[in-house]
Design a protein that fits this description.
- The complex is a heterodimer of chains A (464) and B (285).
- With 464 residues, chain A is an all-alpha fold.
- Chain A has one domain.
- Helix content of chain A is 66%, strand content 3%.
- Chain A has a 3-stranded antiparallel sheet.
- The N terminus of chain A is likely disordered.
- Chain B has 285 residues and is mainly beta.
- Chain B folds into 2 domains: 186 residues, Immunoglobulin-like, CATH 2.60.40.200; 87 residues, Sandwich (Immunoglobulin-like), CATH 2.60.40.
- Chain B contains 2 helices and 17 strands.
- Chain B has an 8-stranded antiparallel sheet, with no helix packed on it. In chain B, strands 11-17-16-13-14 form a 5-stranded mixed sheet, with no helix packed on it.
- In chain B, 37% of the residues are buried.
- About 14% of the residues of chain B have low confidence.
- At the A-B interface, strand 1 of A face strand 16 and strand 17 of B.
């Protein structure tokens, strides 16, 4: 294979592959837990109702009051502005530029991690939503009427967001040719992409309405919103309240295209994890074929990566649909389409587990950079030291390899258990007979075991 | 804090350190208040013209600042010289080790480093003083290394593989109470570093700006001493990521790395200028 020129990647450190003994332990625990789940399944659905109840009146209203919303919105717009400015005007070195770590680590990984616990944290900070709402309010004040919008074609559902998600990761790991680990994009391209996306998003909000577009098409709202369904805080009727964790996920997937969002999440994470390890040989083989045909090195690398990313999408969707087809054969099963959409949310914990397993260490290490030198010297040019931390570095010793392994395997096993829990629960509400419901879950169990073991496998061969 | 109290504390600290040092100090320089010093010794590659060189270097920490003074005789007449404060001791091959920097990731220029530039007089004597308004942390001032300021004259030196900077004339190892622990650690590291130039340590050979035989895989267990050398036919800066070590390698030269495996994970070793990975360093727990 020819030498690909590699620029600086965001992080020049990679996790060690999970050792064979831990792989074996992880896989064994997964199987044991699964059989236990089958034997000890409960008989009545427990997660079909979110059981939302408001927090104390003062707090629950204050938390979502207009000044708080305005403040959060402003913060979001300001931070996006800083990121775009740093991307366009700052250093070309991805690891020294505020923009890349902020967009691809702090935001892209931070919101899923924390939303899965606390609920939808992105909504108040969404910069495009804030701009859209402010514009709408200004329009209403001047024109004396609320802006009118086109009716959103419901058939499209969340497909625009799913496409945006794939595009985002494609840009991050396929288009960016700097290789290395995680983000391969250069700051300049990231800045331009952010501007283009902002223009597109504001246009769509103008067409279909701010909230509608956030629920359906705005990639980040939908993607982070998906994980927030697992969290225990939620706003309803202008009040902040608590709900049963996991329970909100059940109703999330009823919108068309939701399945595509989950599948896109799992498969893009898989691709990123596998491209340096399990798929490396395959990608290089395809790369050589493209290079032989006469494509340039960069183009050939992007094409071969794209092929494998597409294969991941098809593979993940295929395994899930196979499971659904299996469930459909069980006595008393509802329609295929209902099953297909009705179990999509059970993959959210798996998607989260994949994210944690692949990016946990990157997050811990890069956030040290984010809150020290990247904050003090956002452009990375050594021209500012706003908080006196410009000279700090990342302490890579805060996480030992063992700690990272346990978190990785622990996340996958936990995701597996939560996925099984949601699937079992949903089956109980779909099948009138509890025994049929349990029987249908052999299939979902096979799907979950496949995803979890594939996840373990990816970790065990990373960078083999 | 009043300056009188500060002084009192300082005196107490010095008394304690001096007491400790007296037990283990086998010679070396003065142990004044916050002062460390050393005599210049010729390096292995110094040309014969410098055989009569004598001089000393003194580093004084006071009032939160640092002053470094050197005085040298036996130099060439009317010639520009440069010296830097280094972190390491004077043992070859890495005479002095890296330059001292207040901020290890910051600039290579003063005030982040301590540089002393001077011109010798007609008798071949020279002296210089540099001050800094920050205190050099204890144990980080290892030596002062003297070399020519003009690149033109470097060709007069013997080029020998394995020496990072072939232009070093003399080195004064700074000794005193403050550097005792650092010196012990250094000696230990130097003792460990001995085999790094041995044939057993892997050498990554770079030809035409590319690593011969592809990306070299280096594998160690946590706590091991990582040792390898890079031999390159192009001048480059070698960067060990994660550990964030950088060393220059001259065209046709070799640079040796030796450091303890403290961070677990997989790291790139890269030629910084071309952004080309030449080795993969793997540290297992």
């Amino acid at each position: 294979m020819s030498w690909l020129p590699l620029a600086h990647a965001l992080s020049a450190r990679q996790d060690l592959p999970v050792p064979a003994w831990l792989f074996a332990w992880g896989a064994s625990i997964v199987l044991i837990v699964s059989f236990f789940a089958l034997a000890a399944g409960w008989r009545r659905p427990r997660f079909e109702q979110a059981r939302w109840r408001p927090l104390a009146a003062g707090l629950s209203r204050a938390a979502v009051s207009l000044p708080v919303q305005a403040l959060c919105g402003l913060a979001g717009v300001f931070l996006l502005g800083v990121a775009v400015y740093a991307a366009l005007r700052g250093t070309e070195a991805p690891d020294r530029n505020f923009a890349l770590t902020f967009l691809f680590v702090t935001v892209w990984l931070g919101f899923p991690f924390f939303s899965a616990i606390f609920g939808d944290l992105f909504r108040p900070f969404n910069p495009w939503r804030a701009v859209g709402r402010a514009t709408g309010a200004a329009f209403a004040a001047v024109a004396g009427q609320r802006p009118r919008h086109l009716a959103y074609p419901e058939r499209l559902g969340r497909y625009p967001a799913a496409a945006g998600l794939v595009a985002f990761v494609w840009l991050e790991v396929v288009y960016g040719t700097s290789g290395g680990v995680a983000v391969g994009l250069d700051p300049q391209s990231a800045g331009i992409a952010a501007l283009i996306y902002s223009g597109y998003t504001l246009a769509m909000m103008a067409l279909f309405g701010v909230e509608k577009w956030c629920e359906r098409g705005e990639t980040f709202s939908v993607y982070f919103g998906m994980f927030s369904q697992l969290g225990f805080l939620a706003v309803r009727d202008g009040r902040l309240g608590v709900r049963r964790p996991l329970a909100a996920a059940g109703s999330w997937a009823t919108v068309p295209g939701s399945l595509a969002v989950v599948v896109a999440s799992i498969s893009t994470t898989s691709f990123d994890g596998a491209s340096e390890g399990a798929f490396k040989g395959g990608i290089e083989w395809v790369f050589d074929r493209f290079a032989d045909v006469g494509f340039g090195l960069d183009t050939a690398a992007r094409l071969s990566d794209t092929v494998f990313m597409a294969l991941c999408l098809l593979g993940v969707a295929g395994v899930y649909l196979l499971g659904v087809r299996g469930m459909h054969t069980v006595h008393g099963a509802p329609a295929f389409a209902k099953l297909r959409d009705g179990f999509a949310h059970t993959l959210i914990p798996i998607a989260l587990a994949y994210l944690v397993a692949h990016y946990f260490s990157l997050f811990v290490f890069q956030e040290q950079a984010q809150f020290t030198y990247l904050l003090s010297d956002p452009l990375g040019t050594g021209s500012t030291d706003l908080f006196g931390t410009a000279g700090s570095g990342i302490d890579f010793t805060v996480l030992s390899a063992n700690a990272i392994w346990y978190v990785q395997v622990g996340a996958l096993v936990a995701g597996h258990v939560l996925g099984l829990t949601l699937a079992h629960d949903r089956a109980l509400s779909y099948w009138p007979d509890f025994r049929d419901a349990t029987r249908s879950q052999y299939w979902m169990l096979a799907v979950m075991v496949a995803f979890t073991c594939f996840g373990l496998y990816l970790l065990s061969v990373s960078n083999a | 804090m009043s300056s009188a109290r500060k002084l009192l504390l300082l005196a107490a600290a010095i008394a304690v350190t001096a007491g400790l040092a007296a037990c283990g100090n086998g010679g070396g320089g003065e142990s004044d208040e916050g002062t460390i010093s050393g005599k210049f010794e010729l390096t292995e590659e110094a040309p014969a013209a410098y055989d009569g060189l004598e001089g000393d270097a003194t580093l004084t920490r006071a009032d939160g600042g640092t002053a470094v003074k050197i005085a040298v005789t036996g130099l060439e007449a009317n010639t520009d010289y440069m010296s830097h404060l280094h972190v390491g001791g004077c043992q070859p091959p890495l005479v002095g080790g890296p330059h001292f920097r207040y901020d290890p990731e910051g600039s290579e220029e003063p005030p982040n480093e301590i540089h002393l530039m001077f011109k010798s007089n007609a008798e071949g004597d020279g002296e210089a003083e540099a001050t800094s308004d920050r205190e050099v942390p204890a144990g980080e001032a290892g030596s002062v290394v003297l070399h020519l300021a003009s690149e033109m004259k470097m060709s007069a030196f013997v080029h020998e593989e394995g020496h990072e900077h072939p232009d070093k004339i003399a080195c004064a190892e700074l000794e005193g109470p403050q550097s005792e622990t650092a010196k012990a650690a250094e000696e230990e590291a130097e003792a460990d570093a001995e085999p790094e130039v041995a044939a057993s340590a892997p050498t990554i050979v770079v030809r035409d700006g590319e690593p011969v035989g592809g990306i070299e895989k280096l594998e160690y267990g946590a706590g091991d001493q990582i040792e390898f050398a890079v031999e390159s036919d192009v001048a480059e800066e070698i960067h060990v990521h994660g550990y964030d070590l950088m060393k220059d390698v001259p065209a046709g030269g070799t640079v040796a790395f030796s450091f303890p495996a403290e961070i677990e994970g997989i790291f790139e070793v890269e030629m910084e200028g071309q952004s080309l990975q030449i080795a993969e360093l793997r540290v297992n727990p």
